Amino acid sequence: MQKIVAKPSSLRHLNKLRWFILTLVFSILVLLPFLHLYQTYVAAHAYDLLLPNEKTVYDAMEWLTSPFVKNPEHDLDMLKGTTWSGTLFGLKLSDPLAVLSQVATSLSLYWPFLLTALIPVVATIILGRFFCGWICPATFIYELNDTVAAWLRRAGVPLGDKIYDKRIKYLVLTVGLILSMLLGSIMTAAIYPPAIIGRELYYVIAQGAFGSGAVFFILTILFDLLVARRGFCRYMCPGGALYSLLGRYRLLRIQRVVEQCNDCKKCNVVCEFGLDPLQDGFGQECNNCTACIAVCPTDALKFKIQIHDQPFQGPGHLGHAYRNQKSGDQ
Amino acid sequence: MQRRAFLQSLTATAALLAMSPHLVAKSQASFRFLRPPGVLDEEEFLQNCIRCGKCGEICPNRTIKYFSTENGVDSIDTPYIVPREQACILCMKCGDVCPTGAIQSIPREMNAILEKVEMGTARVDRSLCLSWQGKTCGVCYRACPLPNVAIRIGRLEQPHVLNDCVGCGLCERSCIQIPQAIRIIPSKSLSKKSG
Fold first, then answer.
1. Is residue A297 domain-resident?
2. CA of A16, closest CA in chain B: separation in Å?
3. How far apart are CA A61 and CA A72, in angstroms?
């Protein structure tokens, strides 16, 4: 008997870290509207006039923030916005799609805004589509949705798993930008799930009702659930399209170590973006989410610094060994 | 076949989206709203606003609300103010936080505000105004953050709006008459020379 793996690699824990970050980002987006409400209550100096549920919000937020801030009315201003465009401890960050849309629509360059996308763009050039896998608040919902879909499938509910052309999303991005330019109004913001989530969470918590974006988002969830697995991200997301293009020559890539691969195909099954790690097919759509690394039983997937994917290296050697062993047994 | 059907539906959606501004034509008699203080011209504002929602999220008075589809598709998720419901206290935080300059950053000083903020102008309906009907009131004058600059009162506390009114709406918010006797006429609907 051949020993398969000497020591499990610690890279497999990255997927847990990723889930932790996704949960954290989503929780912060839920927390921010409450913090805003708390700020307005503090600004109004009228604790006694608050309704009981408003008092609950006040007390909870005071308990949460009092160790960190002295003057919540002003100090909490350092944490505002969403992943679409936000202020993170005084640092203004924006989604590259927001900047591109604003430039395309207004046909002008506003440097303070362009600079807010600098860090995300550089990070995307190096790390690829990492935003989609590690930060995007919509991914948090879509992956949970995908888990639900897996349960339903296991329970025997027939759900669609259609495959479309991945290039549709580049069309969506182009059409979105052109429409924005023609209408003179930034339309990509209305069809980009992470932007919608940030806004809608704010609307429902701080303003009392969902906006029109919620309908669109629910439709994308249903599309993912009933028609195509992770369909919106794979085929339609304009932001994902932009990130894919930016990350085409990313430095950090997942690669298959052919000597350790046993051709079990778990990586292909777990990949929510329908990529083909088993045959070294990662491409620009890979968002380095590390789900395949976590699921690989033989640690045959590793990070490499390289600007191109490995061409297909042939079937895994361990699998080859198994096949030989099996035929020998017979 | 599936893909073709899908692509057809995609094209149909795109066509619908392209036509939607005409389908959802803005009614000229739409309800009266203000944009936050220090916005660019309406056309430029729509081109620059990325709908991040930070202006509303920083507003200490919870003044800023967001359009759904009421004002047409090009205004979806853009900020607006209905002064009768909640008026602007001219804290100028929204301009500081706006990443794109759609709402311009204006220092919180009277001269800068007078020069750059033009949300609208208050207009008094004398047939509704208590003071003009002989019952001294003067609430609007006392609510105004720029007294004697934007509004002054005459005999029987009768309000006179001056040219420097920036349209914050605190007078309209505070008016004790129902319906209110003083209203902000949004600057974008005032006859303004385009340019």
1. yes
2. 29
3. 10
